[in-house]
Amino acid sequence: MSDVTINDRHTTAELRVDRTTYSKQAVLRTCYWLEKDLDCKVSEALNSEWIISLSLRNSTPTLEHPKVKRIDDWIPEFYSSLIDSQLRVDILVETASIRELILAKAFAKSGILEDQPPGSFADPVGADKRNGLVSISLKGSGKD
User: Fold this and answer.
1) Is the predicted pLDDT of residue 73 greater than 80, yes or no?
2) Model pTM greater than 0.90?
């Protein structure tokens, strides 16, 4: 899955993750999500890996942060956030055309758009009265 190298003081770590599994967008979102506590540097390795260098923003206890987590404690959280981010990116890609269709219909109905979206307002995209979700059915199938 990946390689992890941690320094002797447990304040920095270098992670290597597969670029075919995790997109750049997911890696950057994860770094952004944890930026309050970690500094991140992302680079590409020649062997299709992301090299992610993590370091603690606060490595010594202060009055604000009396208990400082070691970098070892952040690594599972980083991986969990990375998986979450990659899943969100995948869902975003998979549902893009449906979102665009719904937005186009909404804006076209309100008269904001100059050009009408393809199709007609009778297209089978509407609210499902049973559970309040959007449902898509085949034209002429008689199903909602």
Assistant:
1) yes
2) no
